[in-house]
Amino acid sequence: MTPAPGWGWDMSVHSGSGERAPSGERRTGARETLSTLARTATAGGAEELGGTLDTAARRLAEPMRLAVAGQLKRGKSTLVNALLGEEVVAVGQLETTFNVTEFHHAARRRLTVHYKGDRPPREVSPEELARLSVRDADSLDTLRGIRKLEAGWPNELLKAFHLVDTPGLASVHRTDAANAAAFLGIQDPAAQAESQQVLDAIGRDAQEVHDDSVAELDRADAVLFLFTRALGRADIQVVEEFVGAHQSAVNGLRAFGVLTRCDQFWPPSEDLPGHPDPLEYDPLDAGREIVAGYLGRPALRAAFHTVLPVAGLTGLGAQTLTDDEYVSLVKLADTDAQTLVNRLRSERRFARQPYEDLPVPPEERARLLHRLGAWGVHRACVLIRGGADVADVREILLADSGVAALRDLIVEHFGNRSGLIKLDSALRQATASVHRSRALPRDRAHGFAFAETVNTVGAALERFRLSDPGPAEIALLTGLYRGDFDFTDAERDEVLLVTGERGRSAADRLGLPPDAPLPAFRTAIADRRAAWRVRVDDPFHAPPTVLAARTVLRTYDRIADRVASAERLLFHDTD
Prior knowledge:
With 575 residues, the chain is an alpha/beta fold. The chain has 26 helices and 9 strands. The chain folds into 3 domains: 12-61 and 443-571, no CATH class; 64-311, Rossmann fold, CATH 3.40.50; 321-389, no CATH class. Helix 10 (236-245) links the parallel strand 7 (222-227) and strand 8. The longest helix has 29 residues, at 543-571.
């Protein structure tokens, strides 16, 4: 018998890598465990530990929190807008994110202001978002008193993720970490003056902005880390130290790198090797070359699942392009292609000069630049000359910008593993709170009973780690991204597949079509179990590789159990 098309044999209840389990056993089991431990901790006088556990339990039932991080003025807000497909966050030459803003799904637009100190939250008009999130010399005292803005927005992506826009990381580390940040493009010494100018304008210091952003990285389930430049010459050891200092937030399971503003690589410099033709030049190709340099560094391969080149402004403009702006682009497309490229080489003059050879007035050209950037204007005109209508231009520009690919990868990687990643976050937060509680000085409030409570909770967390397959999969994937195991490329791809990289159903994990017959499931499982059993028994493998292979084998065992359960339901009397 063949399952009905679309019946995915959902495995999330066993693998911990999703949220669509028919009974919600995995998510509910972890949540109940953490909730029970929260009550135990609170009753035993460990209120801070109890609060952390309770928060971690509640977070398992919520969408993932995806933070967008990077240095000041690196296109974070533009990328947030591009991912959402609408102009939600203020962007532009003068706008700089002042406070952390967290977006979640809501039926209608809502904005809640969370203040520092004991002042209670307050709901305000959503129209206030721009005023409260960016620099304003007349409102600095108000802005400094805000801890976070929470925006409810009717956006489809936010049904799966909370999206967090952070102010920015700054050079507040010791010298070696600052050098590492420069290597990554997070803190480029050449940008120091610009960053300081921005900080002066918003009335904040680097330490304060950095601390706000790092706090969000620590609370986030996953991170998009933004870079804007090619690799420097800093020593790779420095990079490893920097990544090591942030490995709780930056690792292959939880972090993507994004090379932003790739549209600014166009037009190509006239002295580039080969003298590339700007009419044919794709700036994202230059971005891909830079990304290849990033991924050639072991430290960065370990830190990020991948690094993607993106032209955020072009991607946002593709989704917000108006019909009137398309009409202006059609007029520009009638211009000689080389003439238009030459005029676009200076955006300032393109937006201001009354060129007689351009059939669009300066104010319209300025709006087009604001919408698409110079490369976006050029690319749109190329498409229009080829017969593209407004829908075609929007669709192709979005694809060309890399934003669609980034959005798809976010949903594929983070979405398919949301349950597992959230469990990882919950256990890290709970364990960190146990360590903090154990480190408290012994006094009347933290005596023997307190210590006994903390140890009881810590032991229970450790038992959960050992009994639940989720933590083992987390360790497997973290080590896999770090390159800890002696796996072939094919085995690495198989591990990603079976742990849910391409989907959460048993068919997805086995690489089978969704309507595959049950015998195909049994055959695939038997073949893969046999292969990984050989891996487990190989005496020449180092212990970490053997342990990882054993985890893969157990994952196949759980898939086999799930398929057997489905088979019993289909073919056997359940009375």
